Structures are given as C-alpha cells and as structure tokens.
What we know:
The chain is mainly β. The protein contains 6 helices and 49 strands. The protein is 9% helix and 39% strand.
Amino acid sequence: RWGRREPVLLCCVLLSAWEVVWGQLRYSVPEEMPKGSFVGDVAKDLGLQKTAIPDSGVRILDRGRTQYFSLHGKTGHLVTAERIDREQLCESEQCMLRCELIVEGKMQVYEIEVEITDINDNAPSFEEQETRLRISEITASGSRFPLPEAHDPDAGPNSLQSYELSGDDHFSMAVQAGPGADRRPELVLVKELDREEAAFHELVLRARDGGEPARMGTATIRVSVLDANDNAPVFSPAEYAVRVPEDVPVGSTLLTVTATDADEGLNGRVKYSFHKMSRRASEIFHLDSETGDITVKKHLDFEEISSHEFQLRARDGGELSDTAEVKITVTDVNDNRPELTITSQLSEISEDAPQGTVVALLHVQDRDSGANGQVRCSLDAGVPFQLQTSRGSYYSLVTTRQLDREMVSQYNVTVRAADGGSPPLWSSTVLTLRVLDVNDNAPVFSEASYSARLPENNAAGALVLTVRATDADSGQNARVRYRLGEGRVRGVPLSSYVSVQAETGALYALRSFDYEEVREVGLWVLAEDGGSPALSSNVSVRIVIVDENDNAPQVLYPPAAPVSGAGVRGWSGVELAPRSAEPGLTRWLVLAVAAVSCLFLAFLLLLLALRVRRWRRSHLPPPADGVLRGVPATHFVGIDGVRAFLRSYSHEVSLTADSRKSQLHLSTGSCCNTLPARPLPDEPAPLLGED
Length: 691
C-alpha cells in the first residue's frame, strides 16, 4: 500500500516545518514512515557545526519512555527510531510527540515537538458486521431507528465522511449530526411493513472516508418484522456525570443508569448496553445489562486518562431503544512520587572554579496534578551549592563560593524533591563531585629554623641533618623538592661545602670541616612544589662546627733543634748571637732579669706577712667591755650575756692590704639614730685604728 503514497509522503517530509521559539524545536512528519526517516535538521536549526556534534554532547534525553526519535551522530538529523502509528498513540485529531534534546557543552535543553500527521491508512469499520433490528408491522411510515455507527481512527479528511444504504425500497437512511462532528445514521421507514408479505428485510450499510483513494467499510442490517410495540424505553436523566478518585477499588460501582418502558411483558423489559465507546473505556468499565450498574474492572489512572465519555443504549423486547450520555471524570490522588533525574552532571570541578559555576542540570516532574504535582527541591544544609530554577521543570546546581580542596576533597550532594500532597511524597538523588587540586599552597617546613652540631674532621658525605616540608595540595602540586640557596663560605660557593638531597631534604657535608678554619656555616634551604607555576618557601639552617683535640702544643721559642740521627728532636739552651753584636748587649739583660726577680721575691714576702698578721688578729681575745670603741653602751642590748646592736647602722668598709689604710665609714643620712660621722671628743681615733 506504500507504492502510491511514497511520493506524497516524501514531499511532506522535505517540506517539514520547523521553528525555534523559547528553546523549542517543532517539526512534523507523516505517520507510518520507515525507521530512520528524516524528521528535521537539528544541527542546522541550533546553529551547530556538524563536525562539532560529537564534541558538543548533543543527545536525546531518555525519560524511561518509548523513544520514537533518535539523533544521527554524524549529520545532526532527527530521524524516526521506529514506525509510528498515529492512531495507536493519539486519540485526538492532533497528535504531538515530544522529546528533549540536551547540548551538554552549553548546559541547555531544548524541547522538540513533532506533529504526527495522518495518512489514510485505516478504513471505516463497524463494531459488529451484522446488526439485527426488530420492527413492528404497525410502525408508522417515517419512523426512525438508530443504525450502528462506523469508526475511522484517521483524522481530518481521511476520517469517516458519509454513509450509504442499499437493499430494500421499504427503508431509507438519514444522518443526524451528533456532538462535535459525529454523524449518526438512522434507518427511516418509508413504506409500511407487512409481516405476512415479508417477515425479513436485509440491507447493506456502507461507511466511506474522504481519503484519496477513499476507503469503505460495510455492515449488514437484518430487519425482522414483529407485532406492535407502542412505547420505547426512556432514560431519566438523559445525561449522567460522576467524579471518582483514581484510587477507587476495582469492582466498585460508579453509578447506576435507569430507563423505563411503559409497555408490559417482553416489550417493557429493558436491557442496557454500551453504544458508543472507545477501546480503552471498554477495558476499564463494565455495564450490567439488567441493573444498569456501571462498575470499574481495572485500576483508573488520572495521569493516563482523566476523563471518559461514552453512550449507553436501553432496548426493550420490541427493539425500541433510547440512548444516554455518560461522563466519568477521574480526580487526582497523590500516588506518584516526584521523578528526579540528572540530565547532565560534572564528575569533577577545579577548586578555583568561580562562584556560580553550573555543576549539574536536573529535571523534576510529578505526574500528579494541582498541589500534588507541585514539586519543591532542596539541598542539605552546609554545602557550598544552591539550586536555581531553570526553564520549565529544570534546576541548575551551581556553586555559591569558591571551593577549597584542602578542606573538602569530595562532595556527595543529596538533592530532595517533595510534592505538595498531604502527606507529601518525596524522592532524592545523590550527586558525587570530586574537587580537583589547584596549586594554591606553598610548602611549609616542619620547623621555623634548623640547627645542627657537626664535629670537625668529619668524613666527606656525612649526613648533617634532614629538613622536611609538606604541601597541603595533592598530586604533582604536593611533590616537594629541595635545593640550596645562594651563598659563600670564605669566598667559596656554598655548594662546594654542603649539598641537599632534592627528594628527601637530607643535608650532607661534601668536605671535611676544620674548626680552626670554619667555626659556623649559615645557609638557606628552599622547598619548591611541582605546580605550574611552582610555589616555594625557605628555611634557615645553622651548622656549628665542634672543636676536637686534633692539634698538639707547639713551642714557638726557642726554636727546636734539628732532628738527631736517632730520630729524636732535641732542645739546645745555647743562644746564638750574630758576629756583629757589640760587647755588653748581655749586661743590661742580666740587670733586668735580676730586678724582676727581686720584685717578685718582695711581693711573696709581703703576701706572707699579711697572711701571718691576719692569723694573729683572728686569735686575739675581744675587748674587756665587749663593746666597740666609740659606740655608746646605750646602743647595745644584752640577751643571755650576748650584746648586740640596738639600732641599725649604715656603713661602708674599705679594706686594703695595708692595715693602716683600712677604715669603716658610717653614714648619717641613711637611717635614724645613726652614729655621728665625727669621732667623739674623748675618742678621736677611728674605729679601726692604725697599728
């Protein structure tokens, strides 16, 4: 059947309309196109280079539903992912399929709407291929009887357009306009029936659509001529409406319809049936033909279908009938949790990323309606992130400040979505974000300064000390290397005396130190990390050279005698004089030595005399009165035969090697009631008199 429609469909595809409005793309494509058929040039409409499609992260978002479209990775074309049947997907005349496309490089989401246009791929059909009617022979001409209605799932001009009736001149057909664009065929009796003439009449009802070429469906109408039936059933009321929650239990009675018939017996017995009903409604509801009870036989789902409309028919035993309209409205119940999905996410972020950096794009939806479908998203407290409302039901997770990897190296951010139901339903998802290191920390030495003591005559290569520095960064940025600072020791570069191991910070002596030459070495050690650019710090190191007894005493004068034949160095007391020396350079020398010797001997004798005199004075008995000369007796107090000073005195004592020059001086201004500075009239001598 595709042979005649392929040129028309291909033309429709090439003329597919598109537009970009507020982040939306709109296309149209006929139904029943083969898999991989062109729908629209997404790359062109979004202004993307086709070569950049793989790098831009352009893809169709998967929401857990059937994907009817896919994106060609090389061309950027939107194509069909499978054959699409408009009649299976949509019950309304306009059929729109939606999908979402994300450009991860721009963190932007576009909504794509594709209208599925109808083709005439369905013929009108009757629910029953044969319909039986019973009409009394006394029925007056002009009486009308409802005929079965045909159904054509196509839309527009391809849908049902007209009915035709053939087969008997007793009947004709009239079409009544129903609600909307419905056409209701009716059988019109144009000639009185005579059961004795013909007990049965067979008619053919044809339904035709408006396609090119037109499609047609047929049904057989068999009319049985009966005896008279005066009254038809009547519904009261003619329209029924009821509202039920979507969680109503299966088997519950939703409503009961009632039709009455004034006839008696078989002609007054009414039976109920569905008259005009969609396939989905027939799977959900059940009608008791005797009582008129309408029950639910399958769970209702507000999110799938929120309203059901159909017709009922009441028929008596004489084939007279009446119809009624039924509308069942399904009300929402908070039975769906919010659906929180991560549309796009960064797995790692640099710690120097600026405030407001988008790290994730989330989509949230709740299939409920009203307050039950209103969703609020939140984060845990204390995290440096916040949610910003994006277009529609999208949220952006952005940073609120600059991150610090040294404080927190990884974040597990929990995003919660709760609806407005009572009680509310909620769901959550966890975003894991690793913080990448930036070289923002210089190495830090473990000590403010270092010092070490190194004995002289050390071996070359001896370990002096080890410096250690740590870097709070990670990876290459935390790798520390050591080196010496610029410097000289006695004019020689420092690097010829010591060296530092670049990896461990061990400081080695490159040569043997001599305390008599170098007693202390001061230097700087630099620690540098592996970042780019590198950061560094330095520390001072002081090496103190410790003296060792490595030098023997040396006689400077007189000079040593030559080494004897036995290998022993001797010493000669002979002083040599030059031949030009005049007679007598030695006489004055002898006099000088004798004078010095005499002075030294006199000093020793004087020192000995002083020692003896001090010893004698220490062994002399105290004065008879036991008081100091010149000090009144009233200035003493006696306790147990011991006299002591009653008052305080401030005095100065001057002692010399010569006892005649020693004195004791008492000050009058230092305290009250002190001794007078002058000696008493009867005692002119000082406290310590001359001997």
